[in-house]
Amino acid sequence: MANHDICSKTLWILSVPLAVLLVLFIALTAYATYSFHIFVPIAPDNSIDCEYMFNTTSEVYLDYLENRTLLEPTRNDRNCFQIRRRRYLPADMPKSMAGNHNMFFIRVVSKDYDFVEEVLTMMHSPIHFFCFALDVSADELFKQRMFRLGDCMVNILVPRQLFNTSTAHGMLNAHRRCLMEIDEFEWKHAIITAEHDIPLHSTKFLSRRSRRLRDQVEMNGVFFKEEVLDNANPNDTSTQLFQVSRNWIQHLCSVATISHSQHEKLYDYLLATPDFNLPNDEHRETSVVEENCDTHKYDVDGSCLYAMEDFPSIRNTTRLFIRADPHYDFGFVQCVHEVVFERTYFDPISNQNANNYLYGSRKNLINDYRQN
C-alpha cells in the first residue's frame, strides 16, 4: 500500500512539469504560427476573383458592375491582437533592416477606418514609417480606432492633436505635425497623399524611385531643386513653385515626394503663402481635373474616382497613386491590393516570371501563391 502511494505521488509530481511543458509547447507553436506572416506574407483574401475582372465582356464582369462590392465596416477592435490577426502587420521592426532607405508616408484622414487599414496594408513595411493626422470632422469611433492602431504598431504614428483641414494652412499644419513626430530619425523621403489615394506600385518601387530624387522636392510631377527653395519668395505669385504648390494643395495634397533635408524649407515657404479654403463635402469643385474619367465620378476637388471599369488597364499605367471611393466600388480597391501585393512579392528583379504579370499578361500569380 505504501509503495502504491509513493508511485502515485511520484507520477503526480512528474505530471505537473510535463503538463507545464506541454502548455508551453502549445503556446510556442501557436505564437510561431501566428508570427509566421512576418516572414511569409499573407495574400489578400477577397470575396471576388479579380482575375475575371480583365474580361470586360464576360458575364462575371458585367454582373459585378451591376452589384459592386461596397465597404463594410469591421467590428471595433478591443486589442492589438485583433488588428494583427486581421491584417497580419508585423509587430516589430527588424534591426537588420534598419539601414535601408527609410520612407515616411503621410496623409490626413477623417473617416472610413477599414479603407485606411486596407490601403495601409497595401503599403506597409516594418522599415518605413506611416503617419495619419486626424481631421476635426472625424467621429469618436474613427478616432478611437485610429488611436488604437497607432498605439499597437511601433512604426505607425497617429498624433492626438486634431486639425481643421478645410483650409490650406490647416492641411499643411497637419502634415508638419507628422513631420515633427520623428524628425530626429533620419528618414530619407516623405510621400504625402490625399485621403482617398491608393497606390499602384509596391513600397519597394516607391523607395527606389525616391532615392533618385536625392534632395529634390516633387509635386504634381514637377521637380524643384534645393536652390529654388533657398530663394523662394512666398509673395511672388508668378513663380512656378507658387503655381505648382498652390495647385497641389488645391487638390488635397496628392501626391508629393519630399526629401528630409528640404521639408522644413518647403513648409516654411508654403505656410507663408496666402491661406485659402479647400474643397470638401460642403464646397465641391465644379471643374474636373481628368475629363476622360470612365466612371464619370469625381472627388470633391474634381479628381477622377477610379473603379472596376479601369482595372483592366491599371496594370500598365505609370501613375503612382489614383483616387477611389470605397462606398462606390470597394471591390476595385481590393483588386488593386492584389496587384500591389504581386508587384511587391513577385518583383521582376527576383522573379523572372513576374514580367508576364507586370507588363500586361492576364496570368494571375496570386492564386498560385495562395495554394503554396
TrEMBL record:
Locations listed in the record: Membrane
Keyword Glycosyltransferase among record annotations: yes
Signal peptide: none
Protein's membrane topology: Single-pass type II membrane protein
GO molecular function, one term: glycosyltransferase activity
Primary localization: membrane
Keywords tagged on the record: Glycoprotein, Glycosyltransferase, Membrane, Transferase, Transmembrane, Transmembrane helix
Coiled coil: none
Pfam families the record matches: Branch
Transmembrane regions listed in the UniProt entry: 12-34
Cellular-component GO terms for this entry: membrane
Protein name listed in UniProt: Uncharacterized protein
Gene source species: Caenorhabditis japonica
